[in-house]
Design goal:
Blueprint: E1 10-14, E2 21-27, E3 30-34, H1 35-41, H2 46-58, H3 64-67, E4 68-74, E5 80-87, H4 88-98, H5 100-123, H6 126-144, H7 152-165, H8 173-187, H9 202-214, H10 220-231
Length: 235
């Protein structure tokens, strides 16, 4: 993807308490907002958002060119500027640092929006529809194999591993795999601890998907055991 996004696919986000209302752009199977919008979303100063993004990029947690892009944006003075936007990976990473509750609420909303967008997009494109059907078949096989994966945690770990490794999607493979994984563990009450905190942090999930993508086949068991332990209800 070029470091440029279009301006024609907009979705409106409203927080549950009604205090936040902002427009996000959909492009390349992700949602995009500006630093200013992130500051509004997380009820903080823009300088705080800038600082956290700088740290995220400096520590190599995320690659700037992969999660940011320019887009023509009309400001309050009615002039059009080339503005920097950041995708859902960056939004989640910042949210984890400044306001995890709002970050979680936004992620849940964004996951549903992207899932609907992805399904609609794939049903209109024969090649992408084939990819989607292949992925659904794989997910079904993993979640129904009691002999190989007896626990929900093991099913979830192997689902994430095979979705990333099989390169089921042409665009956004790791991100889509992570979204499906989060949906699965959330539906099976594995995502949150009793105190409301996530068993697997968003930035940790980003790192794990990258690890899976770059891993060797012989490392599969070590990786899936690690994921299983991370989301185990006993931990």
């Amino acid at each position: 993807m070029k470091n440029e996004i279009k301006n024609d696919k907009l979705v409106l986000y409203r927080s549950k308490d009604g205090s936040i209302r902002l427009e996000a752009r959909i492009e390349k199977d992700s949602l995009w907002i500006t630093q200013k919008q992130m500051a509004e979303l997380f009820a903080t100063e823009r300088s705080v958002i800038t600082k956290h993004l700088r740290n995220i990029f400096n520590t190599k947690e995320l690659v700037k060119n992969s999660v940011s892009a320019k887009c023509a944006h009309t400001a309050e003075d009615n002039k059009t500027y080339q503005t920097q936007f950041y995708n859902l990976d960056a939004i989640i990473s910042v949210g984890y640092r400044v306001n995890s509750k709002r970050g979680t609420e936004f992620r849940i909303w964004a996951t549903k929006v992207l899932r609907d967008h992805i399904v609609k997009g794939y049903t209109k494109n024969p090649k992408r529809l084939k990819e989607l059907k292949k992925t659904l078949k794989l997910a079904s096989e993993i979640t129904h194999r009691k002999d190989l994966y007896p626990s929900l945690e093991e099913k979830a770990a192997n689902l994430l591993y095979f979705l990333v490794k099989n390169h089921s999607f042409v665009d956004g493979n790791k991100r889509i795999a992570a979204v499906i994984f989060l949906q699965f563990i959330e539906r099976n009450d594995l995502l949150y601890r009793e105190d409301g905190s996530q068993r697997i942090a968003n930035n940790a999930l980003v790192a794990i998907t990258l690890m899976i993508a770059e891993s060797k086949p012989k490392e599969k068991e070590v990786i899936t055991v690690m994921i299983t332990n991370l989301i185990n209800k006993q931990n």
